[in-house]
Write a structure and sequence with these properties.
The protein is α+β, with helices and mostly antiparallel strands and 674 residues long. It is built from 21 helices and 21 strands. It has 4 domains: 281 residues, no CATH class; 140 residues, GAD-like domain (Gyrase A, domain 2, 2-Layer Sandwich); 97 residues, no CATH class; 58 residues. The strands form 4 sheets. Strands 1, 4, 6, 7, 8, 11, 12, 13, 18, 19 and 20 form an 11-stranded mixed beta sheet that branches. Strands 2-3-10-9 form a 4-stranded mixed beta sheet, with no helix packed on it. It is elongated and about 100 Å long.
Length: 674
């Protein structure tokens, strides 16, 4: 689109929106955990399967309150300033792999060498240009997920290229940074919220890769994320599993502005999430112009680059006068309410606070689906999101009432007490006085933004029951600015020489094509080859396949990939040498689960439990006797007697190899039928 073109498309048909016409821009930020110890403390990278209900009592806990500080330029970052207004305390559970550095009681160590090597390898695979001096920086984070109030991050390389099916995507930066603590629970108290974190993940090394805004469409974003994942897995040194890789999406249309969307763990959801964000930005552009028209204010231009600061300032002043901060305690209107949630909250000391919103009746919207079943964007939902950031569970607004047990009489009482006109709306918040005030101040600020272009902010995907609800998002915090970064004085700068970089270039991992060709040289099936590659077991397979039957080794590895490969190889070697019957293999694997066991120990175990195959000469006699005893049955059923007789033979010849029994029994039946 040109900047003068009005954006086209219907908000309720997000799948039909035209990215090019709307001036779509998108880039990705991928965060991948590395399979190493922690970045600055040398603690192990072990993660504990812990929830708030299973948190060990003997793990020490520490309580902190964080405050925003000024960055290197003397300014307080906007996101940090916002977070500091939330009346929250943080409790940290100290896991066994969290020490004084994780508790911010000891200075950090230099970058973990293995983590740095992996990051440089990824940078080289992306054809990025390394920096000559690695300077660790502090990135202000005051949501409690870092005990220090900041995250350490180091720029490693810039200006790379990623090849995708739709074309090349630029790679702006490759960074190495610390992961945050894991949130376990949030509890509301009389004076604010208390957030509980587990420190096991804090300090794990992450590679952060940020692309240029070269993504052409929602589907291209998905293929770009897949391509980045392939590059990372090519190293065979990154973590796998849920939560080990996270994608953030930077999305805008010309009529909107940049929004960073977090929580896109499932790649299949990326196109839907982006399309709904495009529809949301389109909706609020059109709503802004409707609201401006009602107040005889200049229209919002169709592209953000056409905005004029003086005009927007004048609009902001007019809107501030139109929507003043005017909070009212309307608890008396709900003294006999039949709403269970309201009655329960007020009984515990909450008040019902009201905020009038002049001229916004009918503009807040109701929960309505688009043609694909996702929630349509609406101002009321954005206001609720702003309120929730203050810690309240939600709000009630005029467009959706009466509902939730709130009656039309109570609505009329509120409207009367606020002296509202017929076009005026209101928002209600039931919470402790201080919290309701903070929440409605945030609601008012967001309501005033409705006359402007959508705010730059960080949003997260709405997740319910562990999966995205429908691809819609909710606000998290303002988009951080440059003020959040300043140098880490406890970690000295680290030079990166040309010789170091050359070593990285000379030791790059095999490509996917090379790995496929390597596996093709072994006698395994195509399916086994594909699975070994997909599950990143090809190196383990090739390292230990010598002297073992390739197909059997691949099958054992794929069936028991969580076990120690050296133990599995030893078990298969015993089977091949005749010390272990085929049918006892799984039992031996289970008996030594999760342990490294030497070949000598395995052999002794097999001898102790008499797990060797039965003598084949004696086995043949047993089978012939069984067939002769059941000759009439064999002649009646023919080769169909195989199944029933297999069980009889296996029971009679305990420890016999099933494959050998099958071959001998088949021969015996065929001989009897001749």
């Amino acid at each position: 689109m040109t900047m003068a073109d009005e954006p086209q498309g219907e908000v309720h048909r997000s799948s039909a929106l035209d990215p090019e016409q709307l001036g779509f821009m998108c880039g990705l930020e991928v965060h991948q955990q590395l399979a190493t110890g922690k970045l600055h403390s040398r603690q192990s990278g072990e993660l504990y399967d812990i929830t708030v209900d299973t948190l060990p009592e003997d793990w020490p806990r520490f309580e902190r309150r964080l405050r925003a500080s000024r960055g290197e330029g003397g300014a307080v970052d906007v996101a940090a300033r916002f977070e500091s207004k939330r009346n929250r305390t943080f409790v940290y559970a100290q896991s066994p792999n969290a020490g004084l550095i994780e508790l911010d009681e000891q200075p950090p160590l230099a970058l973990d060498e293995e983590a740095l090597d992996i990051t440089l390898t990824v940078a080289a695979l992306l054809k990025s240009k390394p920096v000559s001096l690695i300077q660790t920086m502090r990135k202000t984070v005051v949501d409690g997920s870092n005990t220090s109030g900041f995250q350490r991050t180091s720029l490693i390389a810039t200006d790379g290229v990623l090849e995708t099916e739709e074309g090349t995507v630029g790679v702006d930066v490759v960074c190495l940074e610390e992961d945050s603590a894991r949130k376990l629970d949030t509890v509301s108290t009389a004076h604010g919220q208390q957030v509980l974190y587990n420190l096991d993940r804090l300090g794990l090394p992450l590679i952060e890769i940020a692309t240029s805004p070269d993504v052409l469409s929602p589907d291209h974003a998905k293929s770009t994320a897949k391509a980045l994942g392939r590059v990372l897995r090519q190293t065979r040194r990154v973590r796998r599993g849920l939560g080990s890789i996270r994608q953030d999406l930077n999305v805008s249309i010309g009529a909107g502005d940049r929004v960073e969307i977090k929580g896109c763990q499932d790649l299949s959801w990326i196109p839907q999430i982006i399309r709904l964000e495009m529809a949301r930005q389109l909706h609020f552009y059109r709503l802004a112009n409707d609201l401006r028209s009602a107040l005889n204010l200049p229209p919002l231009p169709p592209h953000r680059d056409l905005d004029e600061a003086t005009v927007e300032h004048e609009v902001a002043q007019a809107v501030s006068q139109h929507l003043p901060l005017s909070l009212h305690d309307v608890s008396s209107a709900f003294s006999g309410t039949s709403s269970g949630m309201v009655a329960e909250s007020m009984a515990s000391g909450s008040v019902m606070m009201a905020l009038p919103l002049k001229g916004l009746l009918g503009k807040l919207g109701k929960n309505m689906p688009d043609e694909d079943g996702a929630q349509l964007p609406r101002l009321g939902r954005e206001l609720a999101g702003a309120a929730k950031l203050a810690g309240v569970k939600g709000i009630f607004h005029a467009d959706e009432l009466p509902a939730y047990g709130i009656t039309s009489e109570e609505v009329d009482a509120v409207r009367s007490e606020l002296a509202l006109g017929q076009d005026d709306a209101f928002v209600l918040c039931c919470a402790p006085d201080w919290q309701a005030t903070l929440a409605l101040e945030a609601v008012l600020e967001r309501a005033r933004m409705a006359w402007h272009r959508i705010p730059q902010e960080v949003r997260n995907v709405v997740v319910k029951k562990g999966a995205p609800e429908d691809g819609t998002t909710a606000p998290m915090r303002p988009l951080p600015g440059r003020s959040r970064m300043y140098p880490e004085t406890d970690v000295p700068p680290q030079p990166l020489s040309g010789e170091d970089w050359q070593t990285v270039l000379e030791t790059l991992p095999m490509s996917d094509q090379e790995r496929t060709e390597r596996l093709a040289s072994y006698d395994i099936s195509t399916d086994q080859s594909d699975q070994l590659l997909a599950r990143e077991l090809d190196d383990v397979f090739c390292e230990r396949v010598e002297g073992l039957p390739a197909k059997a080794w691949a099958a054992l590895l794929l069936n028991h990939d969580e076990e120690h490969p050296e133990t599995l190889a030893g078990i298969l070697a015993l089977r091949e040498s005749g010390h272990l019957a085929r049918d006892h293999v799984d039992g031996v694997v289970e008996a030594h689960q999760g342990r490294h066991v030497t070949p000598e120990e395995l052999k002794a175990y097999c001898e102790k439990h008499d797990l060797a195959p039965a003598d084949i000469g004696g086995l043949e006699d047993v089978i012939n006797a069984i067939v002769a005893e059941r000759l009439e049955f064999v002649k009646e059923r023919g080769m169909g007697a195989m199944g029933p007789l297999m069980g009889v033979v296996m029971q009679a010849a305990g420890g016999a190899d099933g494959k050998e029994v099958s071959a001998l029994l088949r021969a015996a039946i065929q001989a009897a039928l001749e």
